């Protein structure tokens, strides 16, 4: 299947009842690099889901514990009380920002893997041209598909990952700021 037929194939693949077969065909067209890219994407989405679950369930519980402990304190102005508060804020920041740098690194790897797919696909095209000559376009179409699909997939994965990573960072910063305001409030 040539890369020109990709756009005709994609809607049929999405409407196809056996999506696993369609995905398998797509992955085979993209070559080995596309499988590596899929593994990176799966890993960063796993980490994103973990962060989202943490923000929705675990952090609110811990936040309420910190706030109730702070409000129970009879004295909130001493050096000792401020040190406790700063320790909680530091712990909150550490827990909120956990894995965000790893997600950022994995997202930045995606376009590089796409480019690696481009290089390997072009090597395949040049190999076909050297062995069979350049007169048969059908032989070169597989190599061109091998070159373009990983690039496209890498860019799409990176764009989606960049957007979600930015939203996660913003959500974590907002929660950290709200916690700090809550802990700075007086009785």
From TrEMBL:
GO terms classed as biological process: protein import
Pfam families: MotA_ExbB
Keywords from the UniProt entry: Cell membrane, Membrane, Protein transport, Transmembrane, Transmembrane helix, Transport
Transmembrane spans: 34-57, 105-126, 146-169
Coiled coil: none
Location of the MotA/TolQ/ExbB proton channel domain: 74-179
Location relative to the cell: Cell membrane; Membrane
Any Gene Ontology CC annotation: plasma membrane
InterPro entries in alphabetical order: ExbB/TolQ_transport, MotA_ExbB_proton_chnl
Membrane topology: Multi-pass membrane protein
UniProt xrefs under PANTHER family: PROTEIN TOLQ, TONB2 ENERGY TRANSDUCTION SYSTEM INNER MEMBRANE COMPONENT EXBB
Similarity-based family: Belongs to the exbB/tolQ family.
The protein's name in its UniProt record: Biopolymer transport protein ExbB
Organism for this UniProt entry: Vibrio xiamenensis
